[in-house]
Design brief:
13 helices; single chain; 2 domains; NAD; Rossmann fold; seven-stranded mixed beta sheet; binds zinc ion; Dehydroquinate synthase-like, alpha domain; globular; alpha/beta; binds nicotinamide-adenine-dinucleotide; binds the ligand O=C(O)C(=O)C[C@@H](O)[C@H](O)[C@H](O)COP(=O)(O)O
Length: 358
């Protein structure tokens, strides 16, 4: 099985290649322009997939490697310096290609290093988690966290290609598979009610790693994301829909300490909060909120946030990148499968959602 999609952006178009099992080096080699390649990974993925990739590339390229510590808590200025240091120490030039081999943390950090080193060098995404295959590797959002806010420092920088090999998911811990499923469910809730029905029907196949069903889910999500990115690469409008559940979710991640709640877990609980507010607005029904909670639970995801003081949550929300002139803007559901970005909600309803879930 091999599927190809194309992402159209202002800088360039690039392919997303989805395979059931492939030689990673062979697939990415045609997209490497210069002689130098730097593969960035972490201590977990290193043991699983680095050696084969490096050996496969060594015949044609000078291959350097950077192995970061594993975890969201290392998605920081301090640890991205390890990539810059290696680029400098090895006299890398502008035609170096960076390869991100790993999940969304490695992908976001490598992408930002590529965006900023010498004001921009090429990079390739080899996402190895479900979350990174369906979401973070596509669309060019790159960056690192700040202690006071998620992804606060970053850049839009598109990869030269994305290679999603379903085989890499066979080694993924179940908790990480669930976390990725949160972003899969997100696409259904914001864009396609039929996809939600499909997910409800196929959740057990997905959770038991049926490669064919997984590849279909990955391809559908990548297509949704590619369509949105093609229309609004830099999030001046429609792209913000991809942030459904994230204003609430980022509060959880920041408040609890990066890495305690996985990004997908925080987004899952955040999507329930956004759904509850959508219900309070009179847009969706109690039954819709129940249905959303049920599909998240089927993916073994949390549906309740941890206890966070309402005022602290509101203060953290003020750091959200969607805030305009001090006004919090949220993604809410008009119906299941249709989302809107709005600042037009009563603050007391938002406070009620934040308070009720304590
Ligand atoms: N740029 C974007 O558009 C975007 C979109 C969504 C999320 N994100 C970011 O992505 C990050 C979350 O990504 P994630 O969920 O992939 O987390 P992650 O990168 O931390 O990976 C999850 C865990 O799985 C391990 N792992 C990775 N691949 C594996 C494999 N094949 N087998 C076994 N273990 C493996 C990792 O070492 C890690 O421990 C967050 O920082 C989030 O903010 C970015
Ligand atoms: O690609 C996007 O656009 C998204 O918002 C995808 C999100 O799933 C992802 O978590 C993203 O990193 C959040 O972006 P941020 O700008 O809210 O930090
Ligand atoms: Zn996300």
């Amino acid at each position: 099985m091999k599927a190809n999609l194309t992402v159209h952006t202002q800088s360039h178009d690039y392919p997303i290649v989805i395979t059931s099992q492939c030689d990673l080096a062979k697939e990415v080699a045609p997209y490497i322009k210069g002689k130098q390649v730097m593969v960035v990974t972490n201590t977990t993925v290193e043991k699983l997939y680095l050696q084969a990739l490096v050996e496969g590339l060594q015949a044609d390229f000078e291959v350097l490697t950077v192995v970061l510590p594993d975890g969201e808590q290392y998605k920081t200025q301090q640890y991205i310096d390890q990539i810059y240091d290696a680029l400098m120490d090895n006299h890398c030039s502008r035609d170096v290609t960076l390869i991100a081999l790993g999940g969304g943390v490695v992908g976001d950090m490598t992408g930002f290093a590529a965006a900023s080193f010498m004001r921009g060098v090429n990079f390739i995404q080899i996402p190895t988690t479900l979350l990174s295959q369906v979401d973070s590797s596509v669309g060019g959002k790159t960056g690192i966290n700040h202690p006071k806010g998620k992804n606060m420092i970053g850049a839009f920088w598109q990869p030269q290609m994305v290679l999603a090999d379903m085989h890499t998911l066979t080694t993924l811990p179940q908790r990480e598979l669930s976390a990725g499923m949160a972003e899969v469910i997100k696409y259904a809730l914001i864009m396609d009610a039929d996809f939600l029905t499909w997910l409800e029907d196929n959740m057990s196949a997905l959770m038991s790693l049926d490669k064919v069903v997984l590849a279909e889910a990955v391809a559908r999500c990548c297509q949704y994301k590619a369509d949105i990115v093609a229309q609004d690469e830099r999030e001046s409008g429609k792209r913000a829909l991809l942030n459904f559940g994230h204003t609430f979710g980022h509060v959880i991640e920041t408040h609890e300490g990066y890495g305690k709640w996985l990004h997908g877990e925080a987004v899952a609980a955040g999507m329930v909060q956004a759904a509850q507010l959508s219900q309070k607005m009179g847009w969706i029904s109690e039954a819709d909120v129940q249905r959303i909670s049920k599909v998240l639970q089927a993916a073994q995801l949390p549906i309740k946030p941890p206890a966070i003081d309402t005022q602290i949550a509101l203060d953290l929300m003020q750091h959200d990148k969607k805030v305009k002139s001090g006004q919090i803007r949220l993604i809410l559901l008009k119906s299941v499968g249709e989302a809107v970005v709005t600042a037009d909600f009563d603050q007391s309803l938002l406070e009620a959602v934040l308070t009720e879930t304590l």
